[in-house]
């Protein structure tokens, strides 16, 4: 499991005083940095090889600016060209939101999905739920 801590910023709040729901996808992307590094250790845009195919998020509790959050990231499944990532926003021991994302290993030159190499697959499987 990957864990990433974030201190919510005032600008991420909405008129009701809690973190706006539109912020969570950005936090989840930041929480996937560990996965991105498995595919592309330097995070170089010139050699980027992932695309986001789909994501869904379910909200359970309000998230407040005053308290830090932890983004937990795990891998549910590794397929031939894609993987399913599970993520949670934890604040004060509560799961406030949970999400599922499908990432595709992508060959930008050929403009099509590419098989996940075995070495990368082995690293990903170390983070399976």
How would you sum up this structure, described in words?
Helix content is 18%, strand content 40%. With 129 residues, the protein is of the alpha+beta class. It has one domain (2-125): Thiol Ester Dehydrase, Chain A, CATH 3.10.129. Strands 1, 2, 3, 4, 5 and 6 form a 6-stranded antiparallel sheet that branches. The longest helix has 8 residues, at 24-31.
Q: Beta-sheet strand percentage?
A: 35-45%
Q: Percent range for helical residues?
A: 10-25%
| CATH class annotation | Alpha Beta
What form results from the Cα inertia axes? Answer: elongated
Overall mean confidence score, pLDDT: 95
Alpha carbon gap, first and last residue: 8 Å
- Main sheet makeup: 6 strands, antiparallel
Number of strands: 6
Superfamily (CATH H level) name: Hotdog Thioesterase
What name does CATH use for the topology?
A: Thiol Ester Dehydrase, Chain A
Structure classification: alpha+beta
Give, in order, the helices and strands.
EHHEEEEEH
């Amino acid at each position: 499991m990957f864990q990433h801590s974030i201190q919510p910023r005032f600008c991420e709040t909405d008129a009701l005083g809690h973190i706006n729901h539109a912020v969570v996808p950005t936090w989840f992307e930041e929480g996937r940095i560990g996965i991105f590094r498995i595919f592309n250790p330097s995070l170089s845009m010139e050699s980027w090889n992932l695309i986001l195919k789909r994501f869904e998020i379910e909200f359970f509790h309000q998230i407040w600016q005053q308290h830090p959050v932890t983004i937990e990231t795990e891998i549910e499944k590794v397929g031939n060209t894609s993987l399913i990532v599970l993520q949670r926003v934890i604040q004060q021991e509560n799961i406030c939101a949970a999400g599922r994302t499908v990432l595709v290993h992508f060959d930008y030159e050929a403009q099509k999905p590419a098989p996940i190499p075995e070495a990368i697959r082995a690293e990903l499987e170390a983070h399976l739920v």
